[in-house]
Amino acid sequence: FFFLFIVSFFCVFFFFFFKQKTAYEIMPSLVGSEMCIRDSIRTYWEATYQNINNCNSILKPEVLAVVENEKKRAQFEGEALFIRAYHYFNLVRLFGPTFLVTEEISIAESLKKDRSSVQATYAQIIDDLKRSVTDLQDITYSSNCLLYTSPSPRD
User: In terms of pTM, does the model score above 0.85?
Assistant: First the structure.
């Protein structure tokens, strides 16, 4: 009887401290890492739609009308259309059907939108790119357009 008690105690002790974890016990650590991934995806999704909304703000006729120079107005419109097409291209490749928004909307309005088909999203991308090419065809960028140069203090 004493031997049976010792063996039972040893088995309980061994399994209590060295047992393999169940899926339920592992799940909290998985949930944490999944939450990081989910948060990253959510952050990307929200930032992309914020950028699309910014492009839609620029593309409003009353905003473009403020720019008096016709060439600059076409440049701003073409660049905004290109950026919007770029964002939709990434969204549709990553997530499939997207929420197609071509005008500035509020958060409340965005919650009521339905997803558009992949075909409709690609059609919008192509339309934006065609309009962008038309607007940007006369624009030339210098090779160092992103390079800031200033006089050196030694000059």
Answer: no
